[in-house]
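RECORD TYPE: protein structure
NAME: Mannosyl-oligosaccharide glucosidase
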Amino acid sequence: DSSLLWGTYRPNIYFGTRPRVPNTLMTGLMWFGMDDPTNWQRIRHSCELGDNLAEYGYSRHNGRDFGEQTMRDSDQAVEIRSQFIKVPGERGGSWAAGITGKTLEGGKEGAALMYYFGMEGNGTMKMSIEDDVAVIRGQTEELGEFTARIVPAASNKPPRLPKKLRKVKAVKAGQKVAGLAMNVPGDDVWKAKDLFMERLLPAARKRAQAIEKVDPGNMPLSGAALFSLDNTGLETGGNLLFAQMVVKGEFAFDVIYECSDKSARIDSGTITAVAGARRKEFDARFEHTFGLAAKGFDTEHVAMARSALSSLLGGIGYFHGSGLVSPDPKPEYGEPDEIAAPELSTPYSLFATTPSRAFFPRGFLWDEGFSQLLVGQWDNDLSMQVLLSWRNTSMGGWIAREQILGSEARSKVPEEFQVQYPNFANPPTLLFNVEAFMRRRQEIASLHKAGEGGLVDLPAGEGSRMLLDHELANRMLSELGQLANGMLEYFLTSQRGSSAKTASDESAFASGFRWRGRSESHTLTSGLDDYPRASPPSTGELHLDLHAWIAYMQRLVDELALQGVGGGEPMADKAIKALDELHWNEDENMYCDVTVRANEDYDELEDDEGNAEVPKFVCHRGYVSLLPMLLGLVPAESPKLGHILDMIEDPEELWTEYGLRSLSKSDKFYGKGENYWRGPIWININYLVLSSLHTNYMHIEGPFQEQAARIYTRLRTNLIANIFKQYQDTAFFWEQYNPETGTGKGTHPFTGWTTLVVLIM
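PREDICTED:
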């Protein structure tokens, strides 16, 4: 899809662009305040929690050709707004970024703003300053010839320097725009901030020495005098080019990238008008898609929801590079740890959302499945592009749960977490979106039928070609079916259990399943990191949630087979039967994990070795024990459902006025240790609760229909109210929420699955 070639696909930095092409062009924004001469050491570039920005994130972003955000940096005394637009044309077309803002009260010396273009691979670039405009001319094989302009507004004003400083020749202040060009290894272009700082300090020292000679000991130093660029390197060019504007008060500049297609020209004066028109289009499409105003939500709630969707779309990135992968499965529980050293994979690409631009700026497998539920509702084709990109990383059905591609990504991850192991699975939430695609496809078919061959109500905006084109939709479903079948086969073969407990039949599900990658306190592969499990760990464990995921996958594969995708005998009923036999605890009336313990009556001389251990339930009320219900594996008439709903609704177990706790308040591990999944409220699981209640229980006759409807209404109200309150108080969406106070916890902004609040609304 060439319309998706260029985008804001560098979510790890506050603002930047790149194409979905490896080893080519990337751009980015940097800034620092001038009041403190040491601020150059704290240049803003990549999103960092330590920067303490009071606000950043997209208020509107359509995922394709428009986005706008505000970045408020009180520590550096500057507020910046970015508007991004695209114009279609050859080789991905042209794009522009309108940057406006102001220095805040207290910013007496102004701020330095830098915009750079960096080339990772083969190609040429050169910058010149022409009539107060930085002009870049270049070419690459993939993008062809291009021209870029950084255009400062005529109204921009630099900070005023003392008269004595204006007489120093070395001081290059007062310019509308100045440049810097350097040649660096292509693999280092992503280090633009560090490379810029390395050049900035020696130049500042020379200027300070020149200033000292004019009036030793008496002349006041100014950030603008020390840290303004002087066009070094522009004559020879380079593969990393910076344009700098030093400003005070209100400021503006445009960054315009134009391809060689003359029909895709962008006039600097029209960026604001184009952005304004697309803002109106976005708002209308948002209401058409989600209908929040029609449901009675006020303007502030709608604005929060728009920001949630936009921040998710603005967090989509294109990543390319090698990952560290072990050629061997990782040993467990005291097995010999003699495996081959991890190797860098062949470089590959991934187009994916990022859970947090500051803390998790890369692809995460189980997060992605939740994120795409919202993306797909907004733009089916964009979502399918992401799913296909993930599918293309699959190796025999295995997909690395964390995609750490290239040195830039590895720089953000502790070394002990970088290696991906082929026996480490992750919840298959990507497959939620296979179901979602099938539903959307059925809706389109119904519209066709209602219109007697003509569509009655096309989905709003772009992004529906894969639904409207029957042949393309069939191809897409076939590819998604291959993804589902491959993942199921991988899970069945790599995560099989080996416990003393087995189900009654001899199916592939009878021996149960065990997450690989356990430690004493964590099961990272489950996605529920520190949720309590058996202690000590054992290869005889059977994990309830893993079995539920596999039963869910089998049911989906059975459904795909009915639509002519794949084949084989329907097996979902057997998977669910084995789940109930292995994991339902009649004494506790709940689903539980299973482990093994030594059989105290075992006689080594007389008894069979297989009787040396006996199975034992490991029960912790919380998200794990809910999973069969969340995935719709518990029938509406089953007494098991009643026990699960009672657990959900009990304030001493999971219920709070802010959402459902991850672990029961009565559990001995509640709030203990790392306390990551031992109490805090997570929006992805709360969303699954609501979705399952709505789809599987509250509209289906049964003994618990009324209770399901009551829980749905109350839980939905509580979640929306608390997420909205925390957003109003902090301007951020959060990774998790405190079950006692409702306050946001963990990293922020967390614009992965917390953005499911839009679908909850």
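COMMENT: The CA atoms of residues 18 and 337 lie 41 Å apart.
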